Amino acid sequence: MKNNVIKFFLLLCVAGIWSCKENSPVIPCLSCDEEEVVIEPTDKKILIEEFTGVRCVNCPAGSAEIENLLDIHGEQLIAVSIHAGFFSAPYTNSKEDYTTPEGTSLEGFLDSPLGYPTAVINRKLFENQDDRQVSQSAWAGLIQQEKGQFSPLVLDLNLDFDETSRQLTATTLIQSAASLLGDYRYSVMVIESDIIDVQLTPEEGEKEDYVHKHVLRDMMTPFDGEGIDEEFTAGATVEKVHQMTLPDRYNSNKISVIVMVHETGDSREIVQVEEKSLAD
Q: Does the pLDDT value for residue 276 go beyond 70?
């Protein structure tokens, strides 16, 4: 009898303990750190911004050199051709005027060129250069000099396009592998390639079926970018969303978007740049 009573009380204790275990509240671990987000530095891509115009007889040679450089460097190199300056006024038989207010402003912002063809590479003032604009003969060497560098920023660009409304949405996640000090700006360019229109050439004069590539069509930000209020701390992600309605004359199958983060002030150097096509 005594043994049975002991067994009964033991069963009650076990049941009580199990009941308490099932109903006890979950207390979070306040001393546990959240899992650290680690972002690895990535290869720094290179942007070449060519300044050109339909009346520039030497510019087709510059455009051909850019295509050659793109073949060599692949996705590591991104190109945009900006129609601006005294060579950019359209002909009477031009289908369009390819100058833009942003392109005209960029020409002065990135040091007005003295001669064409000319380009700016990563918006950088290189050693032994008087300004950012460099002649065609220097492009290949300076691009090679920029290769192999790492950027603390990773840009993940996503494009969404509504065929009916022709609304283009560009969403960029800017991820930081390290904490960055200073002020930075963010720019979004809309580019169109394979535009058939007039161009002055050495061989044929006003060539009506010339193929214009990487033409700056518009910008979703001011020409000098928009400020970034968020801080770039290690592991942080900043989201930027921009929208515009593509005019009907733009061929959406030939449209791409270029996004970049660049320094402010006298430097203006690009920290990281990315491009994506609507056709991807």
A: yes
